[in-house]
Amino acid sequence: MIKAIKGFLQKFSIIFKSKKQIRLGLYGPPNAGKSSIANKICTDWLGEEMSTISAIPHETREIKIKEKLTIKANGKELSFNLYDTPGIATRIDYEDFLKHKMKRTEAKKRAKEATKGVIDAIKWLDNMDCVLVVLDSTQNPYSQVNITIIGNLAARDIPVLIIANKMDLKKSNIKKVQAAFPQYPVVGVSALKGDNINKMYEEIFKIVK
Amino acid sequence: MKTLTLEFIPYGEIENLSSEDRIDKLFKLAKEENIVLLQGKLKPNEEIMLIQKTMENISRKFRGIEICSIDEDKKESAMALNKMKKSFVNLILGNRKGFTIIGPASVIREIKRDPKKIQLLTNIKRNK
C-alpha cells in the first residue's frame, strides 16, 4: 500500500515537474527598457502589453508576471513565465522625480515604492531559471549595478543573456556592451522599433537549459 | 565648511567578519557621510546585500550610496567578472586584490568608470 502511494506520488511529481514553467526574469538598471522588452514579447506572442512604460525612472515598482508565454523560433517552441522586475539602483532620491514635474507627495510615494521594488527584485533573483539583463546601450555599461547584477547571476549559476536595448538611438554602442561583458552573449535590439527582436528570441532558446 | 572624510579600511579589518557584519560596518560608515576606500572587493552577494540594506534605509536625509569596485588588473574592470567566474575561490573567500569605493549619494553624485579611468563626481560646490 505504502509502495503504491509512493509510486503515485513519484508519478505525480514527475508530471508536476514536467509542467513546471521556466522562470525568465528581466533585470537591469532603471530606464534600460525592461518593461518595453516585456511588452514587445507579450505583444508578439499574446497580442497584449504587460507593463506600463514611462520616461520617469522607476515606473515598474513591483514585480509583474505573465504566465505561460510561448515563443517560437526556428521551428522550436519555448514556454515560460516572464517576470518584469523593478530596476535595481543604489540610490533613490525623491527630488529626482520632481524634475519630471511630479508633485512632492507623489514623488515621495514613488521613491518609497521604488525602494521596496528594488528589495523585491533582489529577493526574487534566487527564483529565476534564466535572466535577460537589459542594458541601455547608449549608457556606459561599466556601472557597478550592472556588474553586481551579472556577478550575482554568475555566482548563482543562472544563465544570462544581455539585451543591449535602444540600438536605434545614435549614441547606442553595442560593441562597448560586448567589450564590458565578453563572457556573455549580447544581442542589440530596439524594443521600441522591434529591431533585431527575432535574434533575441533565437538567443533566448540558446540560454534556456 | 563641510569636511569630507575618506576612510581607508584594510581588508584585514573585514576579513574575519561575517557578510552581514561587513555590510553593517561599511554601510554605517557610508551613511555617516564618509567615503570608504576598502582594500579588496566584496563578494557579489555582499554587494547585493549592501544595495538591499541601502534601500531599506532610504529616507528624506539618506538618499542612497554610490559604489565602485576596481580590479587590480589594469585591463578593463569587466575582466574582473571573467576572473570571478573562473575563480570560485574568490566567490567563496572574497578578494583582497583591487579596491572598492563606497560613498553616500549626498556626497558622491556619480562614479564614472570606463576601462581606463574612474571619475568621482561629487556634489561639493567649488568656491569661486
Written description of the protein model:
By secondary structure, chain A is α/β, with parallel strands linked by helices. Chain A has one domain: P-loop containing nucleotide triphosphate hydrolases (Rossmann fold, 3-Layer(aba) Sandwich), CATH 3.40.50.300. Chain A is built from seven helices and six strands; from the N terminus they run αβαββααβαβαβα. The two termini of chain A are 37 Å apart. The model of chain A has no long low-confidence stretch (mean pLDDT 91). Chain B is an alpha+beta fold. Chain B has one domain. Helix content of chain B is 35%, strand content 33%. Chain B is built from five helices and six strands. In chain B, the strands form two sheets. Chain B has a four-stranded mixed β-sheet with strand order 1-2-4-3. A two-stranded antiparallel ribbon of chain B has the order 5-6. In chain B, helix 2 packs across helix 3. The two termini of chain B are 15 Å apart. Chains A and B meet through helix 4 and helix 5 of A and helix 3, strand 3, helix 4 and strand 5 of B.
Concise overview:
The complex is a heterodimer of chains A (209) and B (128). By secondary structure, chain A is of the alpha/beta class. Chain A has helices spanning 2-18, 34-46, 94-98, 104-124, 144-155, 174-180, 197-207; strands at 22-27, 64-73, 76-84, 130-136, 160-165, 186-188.
